Amino acid sequence: MIRLIATDLDGTLLHSDRTVSPRTRAALDAARAAGIEVVPVTARQPNGLRLIVEQAGFEGYAICGNGAYAIRLNPGGDHDTLFEEHLDVAAQTRLAHALLAARPEVRFASVRAGGSVFMGQEGYADLATYQDHKRHPHEMGRYSLAEVLAGSSLKFIARSPLVSPRELYAEVQKLGLDGFFATHSGAPFLEILAPGVHKAWGLARLCGLLGVERSEVLAFGDATNDAELLRWAGRGVAMANAEPEALAAADEVTLSNDEDGVAIVIEALLAGTEQAES
Question: Is 89-193 a domain of CATH 3.40.1830.10?
């Protein structure tokens, strides 16, 4: 029996215009009415999640920052921290200097204070748009690299104007360093967290607090950073538009985000069937 639905947002629950369709909202409402906990599990920070909470009717809990920060949602848009995990200064400093030796054009940013503080290195904001972090570039700051590295990060960000995140990820892997976990979500940068921290880590910890077994979790995702989540869940469903890593990790595939693939699976679940497009 499914007791918790964990869903990614961008490329999964949301249409490409970043909205929740009426069909998807109805499916989420029906799941909640059936007593199933519905939890967004996203790379976004709480400031970016607020835009979706009302559309999707989220209540209860949310996992942000790729698993590093879990919150309890409160009425009125406020939230309480359940747990958080930071990448330490030593690890991010080693990584930054080693990566700069290979790719001197890379710029970094540090997300801190529950996602409310964003410290972009000088030059980072020039590469960014509002949609990248759900904040305007003028709010990202223009800090020295030393200032960016001086405090631990919920999420440490590395970005190159010359190569894709997938190519930059390969550069990081070639460094042979440890002490962190690197991934990418389809956004134009790498996302670096504390070692062992990813969406599955955050969800497993939340499920432990709620007394939910792994076998009782249905998860949806589409991107590379969803692979651990889909692999961990009792039932992992990738979208038709998913990246290869997510497809390989999933138990099954539904229709795309723009075709309400999440809603299709939830509707079938609540109808007592096991059907999903594949």
Answer: no
